[in-house]
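Sequence dictates fold. Next comes a concrete instance:
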Amino acid sequence: MSSATWERRELFRVTQTAELLVQRILACRDKDAYLLHEFVVMPNHFHALITPGETTSLEKAVQLIKGGFSFEFRKHRASKMEVWQVGFHDWTIRDGEDYQTKVRYIHMNPVEARLVECPEDWAFSSACGKYDLDPIPEKFKT
């Protein structure tokens, strides 16, 4: 799934703001809202490859990320500004090949945007290797 900032503002160019979103993504996973397989936070949007939890819909998972981030962001900034565009884009993953295509897309996003030369160099992505992730779902293993 992916979601963009309001009017595509580059809120996540600020390191502390990008880190706040990463921490929110991880915190929701840690509360069993979903399994987190991959993610990337870009300057004006983010992508996450998740499997919703047994009692959490995809919509609820997105609400937990976006709503929780907005609350924390506004609290730290003492601001009431809009943070997110309404809604999100979801992906239906058909098979293992499609799953790997989405993983490559997420990893390569900062490279394609010319923010880094290698996916591993982008600190706000699962590609950097410093975040604990959940394993690939069995049905998508190749």
Remarks:
- The helical segments are 15-30, 58-77, 96-112.
